[in-house]
Design a protein that fits this description.
This protein is an alpha+beta fold. Helices cover about 15% and strands about 35% of the residues.
Amino acid sequence: MKIICIGRNYVDHIAELQNERPSEPVVFMKPDSAILLKQHPFVIPEFSNDIHHEIELIVKINKVGKYIDTKFAHKYYDEITVGIDFTARDLQKELKAKGLPWEKAKAFDGSAVIGDFLPKSQFNSLENVTFELTNNNKTVQKGNASHMLWKIDELISFVSQYFTLKIGDIIFTGTPAGVAAVKSEDVLEGFLEGNKLFSIQIK
């Protein structure tokens, strides 16, 4: 399975990191070894002193597709959740400054938290769902899908131009503002419309 991630999909986060607003979705990948196993803590890796949390809406692909039209994209997933794209911000800045790929900063072991999936049918509109991340019971990131530059179905259509989507593939759809460094003993919890879908201890 593939983990396909979208960067710079919320205007406030683009401004937060002083990035240029893209003309099309920014796409990068994580290997399956990036998935943080259930019930496991996130251990801050020794190669970074500035690991940031980035909460995101996630969809799971349920059938094979290529060159998917936006109007049919809703047929290619029936579950959503929230998760974290952990980012070694110090390493990412260094790589970006050199014009190098981000993988070492984005795709390392344990860098992808995937919450429990919920059927999309229980939500009135996936273009208006609210999600949030708490750190030690304090809200640190809060977003709404209505603020995405590209909606879920548009992202599926775009990505499928380049990669054949297969059953079980995961798409991270971008993070809102509020990213910040984590530290040992933090407890991060992710919510989608009030449903707690993951709880992660930082070590």
